[in-house]
Write a structure and sequence with these properties.
It is built from 9 helices and 10 strands. By secondary structure, it is of the alpha/beta class.
């Protein structure tokens, strides 16, 4: 995705994937001092780890409590979070529907923190956070968050306008999994059903939403828009969104 954007803008460079453990942080930081380094993306499970090692945090990254983008600026390493921006872009047409309402989120990882931040910025009144260990989720200003387990989330579902899957359930190769049991999919009727999983493009959760009469929103656009903002932070150039969408449509399974 980013390599295509570099080529499109005629920028000499390369975006590479590097698998690291928590013990490799110093190695990563050493690489960041290279003159040719512009920035990096940080993925699960390291989004919180890098909070304490960057030189500066944007206000958004600090409030979210997670970083997904590193930018080298004037010799300093700045921690950003573009996940919230990426999450909001695909649902801009539904902002009025969300204001003052309840949203259910499955999952409590680094992505969830950005989603909670995004939903609060849109004026969502109440967020129901569903996870295996709901007591483990920590977020500042959590007075509008209800934590519950998979055993009792249905008690909050009737009045929710949107349900978000922020777990890996449904991701390749486990494409037959979903946070919503098959016998309960009628609860998705007339709800916005947002799955941040993008591989495959149509997850089981989204298929359930279609079957039940909900509004499905896949994770591919979130991936593209968060990447577009990261790319602009690194290079100052625009991200060729439509070209990227077309390419990903070719390579990602439906």
């Amino acid at each position: 995705m980013h390599n295509l954007a570099l080529k499109h803008n005629k920028i000499g460079g390369e975006y590479i994937s590097v698998s690291v453990s928590t013990r490799d942080v110093n190695m990563v930081l050493a690489h960041c001092t290279n003159d040719s380094f512009l920035g990096a993306n940080i993925t699960i499970p390291h989004k919180e780890l890098f909070l304490d090692v960057v030189d500066e945090l944007t206000e958004e990254a600090r409030e979210i409590g997670a970083i997904n983008t590193l930018v080298k600026q004037d010799g300093k390493l700045i921690g950003h979070n573009t996940d919230a921006y990426g999450f909001i872009k695909p649902i801009e047409n539904y902002i009025d529907d969300l204001h003052g309402e309840r949203v259910i989120i499955f999952g409590s990882g680094g992505a969830t923190k950005a989603i909670v931040y995004a939903l609060r910025s849109l004026g969502v009144e109440q967020i129901v956070l569903v996870s295996r260990r709901p007591e483990m989720y920590e977020n500042n200003g959590s007075e509008n968050i209800i934590r519950c387990s998979y055993n009792n989330w249905m008690a909050y579902a009737d009045d929710a306008v949107m349900i978000v899957n922020a777990t890996p359930l449904g991701m390749t190769p486990n494409t037959e999994s979903s946070p919503v049991p098959d016998q309960d999919i009628e609860i998705l009727n007339e709800k916005i059903c947002y799955d941040i999983v993008y591989n495959p493009r149509q997850t089981k959760f989204l298929k359930q939403a279609i079957q039940a009469g909900g509004t499905p929103i896949g994770g591919l656009d979130m991936l593209i828009y968060q990447g577009a903002k990261s790319f602009n932070l690194w290079t100052g150039f625009e991200f060729p969104i439509e070209k990227i969408k077309s390419k990903l449509d070719e390579v990602l399974p439906t």
